[in-house]
């Protein structure tokens, strides 16, 4: 019990120190709103599509889920933030189930801000895919009339972590990504990022279930810049190349038997980038993003796999004073350590 209490004491002391450091960041360049509760709604067109390319004859097939529009609700306060995302059925772009099949998408993410450090944790689950280039496999297939080739049981479950550090203290990553700060003067920063994750890809065909276990670790060299073009308006481009290692293992489960293969290693390459136009004031925040996120690797000598996540996003948020029942535990932490 003593060890647990000491660990809790050290953890709370660290959080309090980092939080106070963030609050003291208020300058003419950056204004902090970590003491405000921020509620934000995002709507984007992100889809997790995969292209499997046969290098021997340049043939390919591209799969993607039937969730062309996604909705994300997020909440940020002090040094903690959380989001939940899903594909609502009331958006007509997600309702073409007769031809593309039914897909489901769920995403939970948490983030912690410790000074110039940001730690993110994410969980996502996507099920139900269709082959976008069905015509290549069915010459008589008619777009808009015939159903696509579908994989209703194909599922991707991912756990991912991201650790990043903002090198330039005069640049606010939180202004353009989480809107918990307000960048008042133009600035940019190099932001090294370490990403690591685990993905389980599975598919059920009759009594046969195939599973692929994927472990990724990547190092990214990101650069962001914010141009303050008006008192309340800004434009922020960014680019983020990365390289990493992917370990994968395949498993097939017939009805009465299990067959496992050895762990394979691949070099994975990724390129992310985008452009954001945003508005920020003391209470209202909104904006639009255009982003791309592409990673690729070679699986063997003849097959290349490309994961494309290009999308557009709209967001709207509001800052306000947190209710007392939320303020109370954070004030208690600060009071315990004399802050």
How would you characterize this protein structure?
The chain has 339 residues and is mostly beta strands. The protein is 13% helix and 58% strand. It is built from four helices and 18 strands. The strands form two sheets. It has a 16-stranded antiparallel beta sheet that branches. The longest helix has 22 residues, at 2-23. 19% of the residues are buried.
Which structural traits does this protein have?
339 residues, mainly beta, two-stranded antiparallel ribbon, 4 helices, 18 strands, globular, disordered N terminus
In a few lines, what is going on in this structure?
By secondary structure, the chain is mostly beta strands.
Present the secondary structure layout.
Blueprint: H1 2-23, E1 30-32, E2 36-44, E3 49-54, E4 59-65, E5 70-77, E6 80-86, H2 97-100, E7 104-114, E8 117-131, E9 150-165, H3 173-177, E10 181-183, E11 187-205, E12 208-228, E13 233-253, E14 259-260, E15 264-280, E16 284-299, E17 303-308, E18 311-321, H4 324-336
Antiparallel strand pairs: 1-10, 2-5, 2-18, 3-4, 3-17, 4-8, 5-6, 6-7, 7-8, 8-9, 9-11, 11-12, 12-13, 13-14, 13-15, 15-16, 16-17, 16-18
């Amino acid at each position: 019990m003593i060890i647990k209490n000491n660990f809790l004491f050290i953890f709370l002391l660290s959080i309090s120190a980092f939080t106070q450091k963030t609050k003291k960041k208020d300058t003419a360049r950056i204004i902090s709103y970590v003491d405000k509760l921020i509620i934000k709604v995002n709507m984007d067109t992100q889809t997790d599509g995969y292209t499997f390319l046969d290098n021997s004859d340049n043939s390919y097939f591209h799969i993607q889920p039937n969730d062309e529009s996604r909705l994300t609700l997020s909440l940020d306060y002090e040094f903690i933030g959380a989001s939940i995302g899903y594909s609502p059925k009331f958006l007509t772009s997600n309702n073409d189930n007769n031809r593309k099949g039914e897909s489901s998408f769920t995403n939970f993410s948490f983030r912690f801000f410790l000074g110039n450090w940001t730690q993110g944790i994410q969980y996502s689950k996507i099920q139900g895919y269709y082959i976008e280039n069905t015509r290549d496999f069915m010459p008589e297939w008619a777009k808009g009339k015939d159903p696509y080739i579908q994989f209703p049981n194909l599922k991707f479950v991912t756990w991912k972590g991201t650790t990043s550090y903002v090198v330039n203290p005069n640049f606010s990553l939180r202004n353009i990504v989480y809107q918990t700060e307000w960048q008042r003067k133009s600035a940019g920063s190099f932001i090294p990022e370490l990403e690591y994750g685990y993905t389980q890809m599975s598919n059920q065909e009759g009594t046969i279930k195939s599973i692929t276990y994927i472990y990724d670790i990547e190092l990214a060299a990101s650069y962001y810049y914010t141009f303050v073009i008006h008192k309340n308006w800004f434009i922020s481009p960014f680019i983020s190349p990365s390289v990493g290692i992917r370990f994968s293992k395949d498993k097939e489960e017939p009805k009465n038997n299990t067959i496992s293969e050895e762990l394979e290693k691949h070099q994975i390459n990724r390129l992310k980038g985008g452009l954001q136009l945003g508005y920020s004031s003391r209470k209202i925040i909104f904006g639009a993003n255009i982003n791309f996120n592409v990673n690729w690797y070679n699986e063997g000598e003849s097959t290349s796999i490309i994961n494309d996540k290009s999308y557009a996003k709209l967001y709207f948020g509001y800052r306000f004073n947190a209710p007392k029942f939320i303020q109370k535990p954070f004030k208690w932490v600060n009071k315990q350590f004399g802050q």
